[in-house]
Design a protein that fits this description.
The structure holds two protein chains of two kinds. Chain A is α/β, with parallel strands linked by helices. Chain A is about 30% helix and about 35% strand. In chain A, α1 crosses α6. The radius of gyration of chain A is 16 Å and the shape is globular. The termini of chain A are far apart. In chain B, α3 packs antiparallel against α4, α6 packs across α12 and α9 runs parallel beside α10. Chain B is globular. Classes of the chains: A alpha/beta, B alpha/beta. The interface between A and B is medium-sized, with 34 and 29 residues.
Chain lengths: ~230, ~450
């Protein structure tokens, strides 16, 4: 049984981020796999899940979510035990060492990854295309952040269009963490990434699942070809 | 914060329900300052010059086919005289309508319900340039203006309205829930200042939308209307203390006097709750004061009944008889093409506009229960917002049990959303659509902003 948990959707659920949980659930279900999707509300204890999702949000809720996760304290242990996490936008920043908040201040992140986020000179709004190991990730970004990765941290991929972390690379990945600035239902646009996350969490190879999502992916790739 | 672009180029002339290029030009009214009579003579030389320029520019813009010419002229006018809106508004009785959804329809209901010669930004250009353009066309003392949420405080300051109608606040296009909260906060900050000083106006506000209540409760003269609010997902946490808001009950009523259950809400932590005194209420019937009746409108949907009730309450502030106002509102059959029956390719289509999750939620309730094919058209142009991520905030799961045809430039985004929602769907080019549909006419079409414009353009009146 694969358990997927969306963390604090009421704080980190802007731009249709809830779509990522739905896509993972449905792609597993349509293959006949045993899967369930849960949401962890603010004030609730973190449930034991195999794959956690962190969405985007404004400064205030982002800080609130970080503090709540720090107080709960169990996420790091879950990751040590092999659970995976997929984070977008503000969620990406939360996993790092620090991020910029209102009034030019900086807030402490969960420090799972050596990644420092600061305020960017200008807001990055638009299409984001990232090369990830031979795949193209297509998405949309809308954030005011700039993220500097430590020397040992591997980015998710190279930016072909848009800004991502810094105009060169986007996100980061470790064996259990995957993060991108592409907000919202990025997994709806990139079925291959949804399947990669499912496969990693289940530790199995997945059967292909052809659907209209593949057509959407191809259409977006063509539309955004750099 | 994004600059609101969605209505900078308005699409239709509502009063006539015809696209602007079909509306005859009131030639003399556009070039003569005399048409506004004494009202204009009080403006001062700079403003009179500005008014002339607004009219000439708008007329040129129309003649050159560069859109409807309501925004460009207004902009030029404001550049010549930054106080032009204030000057044009002086001495008139003004109603402003703002909120995320329902502005255009409520403005039309107010215009109809008030009766007589009412000036209004019928093109939907709802920022100050559009307001200026509307006001130069007539000297009528009755004015109804729809106002973009981000501009409301400034427009109140400039126009000193008799009534301000506040409908609802929710995420729109790319806007985040938090940006909606910022709008609520700016309204609140502005209102406490304005209504205690500048404006003696009355606020008529939706008591069932926590964000609207938060904004309006600081105004000294508020008439609350407990009307429907299908969308609560942008007011999950309390705007006062950030703790969760508790909602009880659900809306189950759909229009025409059927039984309903009410959604009530309160903060789970602090004492933030709905106002205790309500002037008007939507239940099985509409209630205003001690009167109750079935609204029996021609435009469909319980959300439009709510819009009408708020409009009636606003008109009551102006001394308009409730029954007479309602009788006039009942004449309204469509608003800027919305809810209008149109023909195209030998079929009849009912066009409806929704441009954000809350708007879709309202229309899902309206079309619920039907097994007929439904067309949903999605674009992602500037006026729609470039990113259709919000499709995942709208509950398309409600459409299970019927076939949905995906139309518009982003039809594959919609089809993917429906695939994951387990809704049966078809993807079709517009050309093949009429032949693919298996249901009988009329076919419901729900389209977002520019997709709606395309549907309107390609179809003709029945």
């Amino acid at each position: 049984m694969l358990k997927i948990a969306t963390i604090f959707p009421e704080l980190l659920g802007t731009y249709g981020d809830g779509g990522n949980g739905l896509v993972l659930l449905q792609r597993a279900k349509k293959r006949g796999l045993d899967v369930s999707l849960h949401s962890v509300g603010i004030g609730d204890a973190l449930i034991d899940a195999d794959l956690y999702l962190l969405g985007g949000g404004e400064d205030g809720p982002q800080q609130q979510a970080t503090e709540a996760l720090r107080r709960d304290g169990s996420l790091a242990k879950r990751l040590d035990d092999g659970a995976h996490i997929f984070a977008v936008c503000a969620g990406l920043q939360i996993l790092g060492t620090s991020f910029a908040v209102h009034g030019g201040n900086s807030a402490r992140g969960l420090e799972f990854v050596d990644a420092e986020s600061v305020r960017s000179a200008q807001r990055s709004v638009g299409d984001l295309v990232v090369d990830v190991d031979g795949h193209e990730l297509v998405g949309f970004e809308n954030h005011g952040g700039q993220t500097h990765l430590g020397p040992d941290v591997r980015p998710l991929g190279t930016v072909r269009r848009g800004f991502g972390n810094d105009g060169r690379v986007d996100g980061f990945r470790t064996t259990v963490m995957t993060a991108t600035y592409s907000h919202g239902p990025v997994l709806a646009l990139n079925p291959w990434l949804a399947d990669a996350l499912l496969a990693a969490s289940l530790r199995i190879e997945l059967e292909p699942l052809a659907s209209v999502a593949d057509d959407l992916y191809e259409q977006r790739r063509r539309a955004l070809r750099v | 914060m994004r600059i609101p672009l969605r209505k900078s180029q308005a699409l239709f002339c509502k009063g006539t329900n015809r696209p602007p290029w079909l509306v005859p030009l009131p030639f003399s009214g556009l070039v003569s300052v005399k048409a506004m009579g004494a009202h204009v003579r009080k403006l001062g030389i700079r403003a009179i010059f500005a008014v002339r320029v607004v009219r000439v520019v708008n007329r040129l813009s129309r003649l050159l086919g560069r859109g409807e010419g309501t925004v460009i002229g207004g902009r030029v006018g404001l550049a010549i005289d930054s106080q032009l809106l204030r000057k044009l508004a002086k001495g008139r009785q003004i109603v402003l309508v703002s909120g995320t959804n329902g502005k255009t329809t409520t403005t039309a209901l107010l215009r109809e319900g008030w009766g007589g010669d009412v000036v209004s930004n019928v093109t939907g250009a709802n920022m100050p340039a559009g307001h200026v353009a509307a006001l130069v066309t007539s000297a009528s003392t009755r004015v109804v203006l729809e106002v973009d949420e981000a501009w409301l405080v400034k427009v109140i300051r400039d126009t000193e309205p008799a009534v301000v109608v506040l409908l609802n606040l929710s995420r729109d296009q790319l806007d985040r829930a938090n940006e909606v909260r910022q709008v609520a906060q700016r309204w609140r900050d502005g209102f406490s200042d304005l209504f205690n000083g500048v404006s003696a106006g009355v606020v008529v506000a939706n008591a069932n939308d926590p964000l609207v209540v938060y904004a309006a409760e600081v105004a000294p003269r508020v008439r609350w209307c407990a009307v429907m609010n299908w969308w609560t997902e942008d007011a999950v946490s309390c705007p006062v203390c950030t703790q969760p808001i508790t909602y009880e009950g659900t809306w189950t009523c759909s229009g025409q006097g059927e039984e309903s259950e009410f959604l009530s809400w309160h903060c789970s932590s602090c004492d933030f709750s709905p106002p205790t005194t309500v002037e008007a209420m939507m239940s099985t019937k509409a209630h205003v004061g001690s009167q109750s009746l079935v609204l029996d409108l021609q435009i469909p949907g319980s959300f439009n009944e709510s819009n009408a009730l708020i409009a009636l309450e606003a008109l009551a502030v102006l001394g308009v008889d409730f029954h007479e106002g309602l009788e006039r509102m009942r004449q309204l059959r469509s608003v800027a093409g919305r809810f209008e029956l149109r023909t195209w390719r030998g079929r009849t289509w009912r066009l409806m506009l929704a441009k954000n999750p809350a708007g879709f939620e309202s229309l899902f309730h309206l079309v619920e229960g039907s097994k007929h094919d439904l067309v949903v058209a999605i674009n992602a142009n500037v006026a729609d917002g470039h990113d259709p991520s919000w499709l995942y905030d709208a509950h398309f799961e409600r459409l299970r049990g019927r076939r949905v045809w995906c139309s518009g430039e982003r039809k594959l985004d919609l089809a993917t959303r429906l695939y994951y929602a387990d809704v049966e769907f078809g993807v079709s080019s517009e050309e093949e659509l009429a032949a693919n549909l298996s249901s009988s006419d009329p076919i419901d079409v729900i389209a977002n902003y520019t997709a709606f414009a395309s549907w309107y353009e390609r179809s003709s009146p029945c």
